[in-house]
Design a protein that fits this description.
Layout lengths: L14 H14 L10 H27 L6 E5 L3 E4 L2 H7 L3 H10 L4 H5 L5 E3 L3 H15 L4 E6 L7 E5 L2 E5 L12 E2 L5 E5 L2 E7 L2 E7 L2 E13 L6 E11 L1 H9 L3 H13 L15 H26 L6 H4 E6 L6 H12 L4 H11 E4 L10 E3 H7 L1 H22 L4 H7 L2 E2 L5 E3 H8 L2 E4 L2 H11 L1 H6 L4 E3 L6 H7 L2 H8 L23 H26 L8 E6 L8 H17 L8 E6 L7 H18 L8 E6 L4 H7 L5 E4 L11 H7 L3 E4 L5 H8 L5 E2 L4 H10 L3 H7 L1 H9 L14 H9 L5 H20 L1 H13 L6 H13 L9
Parallel strand pairs: 1-4, 1-13, 4-12, 13-14, 14-18, 18-19, 20-21, 20-23, 21-22, 23-24, 24-25
Antiparallel strand pairs: 2-3, 5-6, 7-11, 8-11, 9-10, 11-12, 15-17, 16-17
Helix pairs in contact: 1-2, 1-4, 3-19, 6-33, 7-8, 11-12, 11-14, 13-14, 21-32, 22-23, 22-29, 22-31, 28-29
Bound molecules: pyridoxal-5'-phosphate.
Pyridoxal-5'-phosphate binds next to helix 6, helix 24 and helix 25.
């Protein structure tokens, strides 16, 4: 891979020039002036100044790639959790310091102005954030790549707490427009829906013609993705749905003026809102339409670009185009490409199938059964009648030609592998469709990829032993260190080459300093300063006073039973109880910090939020415990909040039940910024421990084998409740009104669930977790040992650079090469 970026980005202009550019845009783009401009206007003026470079990069990169005959990758994802773009773009262009100085000269604060930018939260959690890190890395590595997704009008809901309970409010990220997107009406597409399939006979041949009854327009909005160094600027293309104007005019002309608007409202509903479910399938017709809408528009876009460069001969299509499915959400792209090749382009089934399989690869993100997408056959038949026929054909050929050849006469294996699940209502298994229609299937961490082969698709793995592989997830060090932790970045820069954000392995140079007293002092001073900053954030957001001398113990991720925030809660209650029993109980002061949104329809998750908030209220106001314990649940956890909290974190809670967290990426962000992981042998925790050294993380609890053995034996959570006095006491505490004065039983549902079902074995791991937390407490008191462990984490995380993940995909799955944009 070309590595022409040997140094950090060079600033392309001076402070006075940047100032001049901002003022020019303030006057002539925004129509205001220095004395009158709002923070928002300054923000827009800076964005306009930055965009002069960005758009120049976009056209330079496009020109380089256009008609080049180089293979490109198309990353299809229903979610892109981008966060804010301004500070990242400034960093990647090497303009941050320049802009900072320019704004100071103008009597403004760049960091305050950055706060004006709303998060672009077009995703739920890890999966969407991964897509965002990946497109940053693809641009940085100069790969010909496009991200494709949906231009949701409303991203993930804003979370507020009312009397301790989560309340969802609409997200308005585009209320006043966005500085970073550019509409490309010339590239709009039409997407068809519903209707019926006709068989047409011509010259003794029959062919299928889909007669859709509904069409939508797909309007592309392009977000420039600035690679580190600014040389390459790729795009993220997000589709907005609109009513098809031709369709509308019919209704309009026949006098149905209001009906025409009703039609438009329905069409625009498609890109209206992101489904807020993480790790559960929604099963709604609108969601299926969203999936098809962006898949079909994206394939049409790829097809249009191919034809404009190579004409109507599609024989090189698969050679020049790779498509990556980020989970099964875009799986309908597989039958869509088949439909285009067979029905519209006249390929034989065999040739079309060869091309389709050579084009697609699929990333699996979860083994949780509730998250594996299955659509009712009847629903696909109604919305996409031709696609349903194609799925039947894919399935019957797969079962007859491939499964029958391997396991002759074995109906049980056919039933298991079939894309169609039989039952009272037939269902289409999107995971099976994705695996059958792709040349490569990957999991997202070593253990997860092994479980995909062993537990999810064992027969498919036997059938195609080379199809399944692993690509461990990563995070971009530009956002998750360089931009979010300027203090640590400048300390690092005193000791390693300035291009470490590109070549993260250079941080291994810090290992030699892990025991150096002066470096330890500097490193921990950075952490302390970051914590002091965050004390203010906590105060502003919650009114809670905490001390920066306490251990900041952080669990930030979606609220889900498998992630086990309630295990953390039970341990907090146990510590509180110990302090009440013995006010001299030896505990280093600790602040437990949570950030988590629950899916609006996920009852138990919302009960857990409520319980944490109620326990927090009691603990934070109990003078008896002398401020040794604080619990902070930050509202509205999102990328921009993560960027402030992660640099200030001491402990990283990664406590999912072994086998359930596919990879995790929050674990990587926290470890890179020097937080010590307390975690189970799950997902990428295992690889983090391997890289950082097992002495520098605290691992506890059951492993996958233990979980399987306990399940086989028959898990009885009530046994743990009865046999551990402390566990029993804290669970019983949830029943009374201690935490909900005058209203007993409000928290009982959490207890009842744990004793009666406890699907994720919280009670079985409680004791081991509690012991592991004592190790954290002991380690933290040994200042040198703690500093050493934190430094070793920062110095050892190169593997989790998303550039490395993308390099793996590029070399082993996409087989594409870098094409650096020419200056
Ligand atoms: C990284 C990130 C996640 C994923 O966190 P996990 O701990 O891996 O689940 C979720 N949400 C946001 C805002 C993130 O930045």
């Amino acid at each position: 891979m070309a590595t022409n970026l040997s140094a950090a980005p060079q600033p392309q202009l001076t402070v006075p020039q940047f100032k001049e550019s901002v003022l020019k845009h303030l006057h002539s783009t925004l129509g205001t002036y220095e004395e009158k401009a709002s923070q928002q206007a300054w923000n827009q003026a800076i964005a306009a100044a930055i965009n002069e470079f960005v758009y120049d990069g976009v056209s330079r990169t496009r020109k380089t790639h256009a008609g080049k005959g180089t293979r490109a990758v198309h990353y299809l994802s229903l979610e892109f959790l981008m966060g804010r773009l301004m500070s990242n773009n400034l960093q990647n262009l090497g303009l941050y310091e320049i802009a900072d100085a320019a704004m100071t000269d103008l009597g403004q604060s760049l960091s305050d102005i950055l706060e004006e930018e709303p998060d672009m939260a077009l995703g739920n959690g890890g999966l969407g954030r991964l897509a965002a890190c990946f497109i940053d890395s693809m641009a940085t590595l100069s790969l010909p790549a496009i991200g494709y997704g949906i231009h949701y009008e409303h991203g993930l809901f804003r979370q507020e707490f009312y009397k301790g309970r989560q309340v969802e409010r609409p997200d308005e990220w585009r209320e006043f427009g966005s500085s970073w997107e550019i509409c490309r009406p010339e590239s709009q597409q039409t997407v068809k829906l519903y209707g019926y399939v006709e068989t047409v006979y011509e010259q003794g041949q029959s062919r299928k013609v889909w007669r859709p009854s509904r069409t939508l327009r797909a309007i592309p909005w392009d977000i420039p993705i600035v690679g580190y160094g600014g040389q390459n600027v790729n795009i993220l293309r997000l589709w907005e749905s609109r009513a098809d104007k031709f369709f509308d005019w019919d209704v309009f002309n026949s006098g149905g003026y209001l009906d025409a608007y009703a039609e438009s409202v329905q069409a625009e509903t498609v890109s209206k809102v992101l489904y807020p479910n993480d790790e559960t399938e929604a099963g709604k017709e609108l969601r299926l339409i969203q999936q098809y809408f962006f898949s079909a528009a994206s394939i049409a876009d790829v097809m249009r670009r191919y034809k404009s460069a190579h004409g109507n001969d599609l024989s090189k299509f698969a050679e020049l185009n790779a498509m990556q499915l980020n989970d099964t959400h875009p799986a309908i792209a597989i039958p869509e490409l088949m439909r285009i090749l067979v029905d519209e382009e006249g390929f034989t089934w065999h040739d079309a199938w060869t091309m389709t399989r050579a084009t697609f690869a699929y990333t699996n993100h979860t083994l949780l059964p509730e998250a594996l997408e299955r659509w009712p056959l009847k629903l696909i038949e109604k919305v996409l009648p031709r696609h349903m026929e194609i799925i039947f054909e894919i399935n019957s050929r797969f079962l007859q030609d491939e499964v029958e050849a391997k396991w002759p006469g074995d109906d049980a294996v056919k039933r298991k592998l079939s894309i169609i699940e039989e039952g009272s209502a037939q269902m289409v298994r999107m995971g099976n469709l994705s695996a059958v229609g792709s040349h490569t299937v990957n999991g997202v961490a070593q253990i997860h990829s092994e479980l995909v082969k062993k537990d999810l698709f064992p027969e498919l793995n036997a059938l195609w032993p080379t199809k399944f592989t692993n690509v461990t997830n990563g995070i971009t060090p530009r956002r998750w260190m360089k931009a979010c932790n300027p203090r640590l970045s400048s300390l690092i820069e005193k000791h390693v080459d300035a291009d470490w954000p590109r070549y993260l392995e250079k941080l291994s140079g810090l290992k030699a300093l892990a025991d150096d007293a002066a470096f330890q002092k500097d490193y921990m001073a950075v952490k302390q300063a970051n914590k002091e900053d965050f004390v203010k954030v906590i105060r502003e957001l919650t009114g809670i006073e905490v001390s920066a001398d306490a251990i900041f113990d952080v669990q930030i991720k979606r609220l889900h039973e498998y992630k086990r925030q309630h295990l953390n809660l039970l341990h907090i209650m146990a510590l509180y109880r110990r302090l009440l029993i013995d006010p001299n109980y030896d505990l280093h002061p600790r602040v437990f910090i949570f950030g988590a949104k629950a899916a609006p329809g996920y009852r138990l998750a919302k009960e857990i939020i409520f319980a944490i908030n109620k326990v927090a209220e009691k603990i934070n106001n109990d003078v008896r415990i002398n401020n040794k314990l604080k619990v902070v649940f930050l509202p509205n956890y999102r990328v921009s909040l993560a960027e402030k909290l992660i640099p200030a974190s001491d402990v990283s809670e990664q406590i999912s039940l072994a086998g359930k967290e596919a990879s995790g990426t929050g674990n990587m962000k926290l470890a890179l910024n020097g937080a010590i992981t307390i975690g189970t042998m799950d997902g990428a925790n295992i690889e983090i421990a391997e890289e950082a050294g097992t002495d520098n993380v605290v691992i506890f609890g059951m492993e996958v084998d233990d979980v399987e053995a306990l399940l086989a034996k028959g898990y009885q959570p009530a046994d743990y409740y009865r046999s551990n006095d402390e566990l029993k006491a804290v669970l019983d505490w949830l029943d009374g009104d201690f935490f909900t004065p005058g209203e007993p039983g409000l928290l009982s549902e959490v207890k009842r669930n744990l004793i009666e079902s406890d699907s994720f074995m919280v009670l079985a791991d409680f004791e081991a977790y509690s012991e592991a937390q004592k190790k954290i407490d002991t380690l933290y008191r040994d200042k040198k040992a703690w500093a050493r462990a934190a430094i070793m984490n920062t110095a050892s995380l190169a593997k989790f650079n998303s550039d490395r993940s993308i390099q793996d995909y590029a070399e082993n799955i996409w087989h594409i090469k870098a094409v650096p944009a020419k200056s």
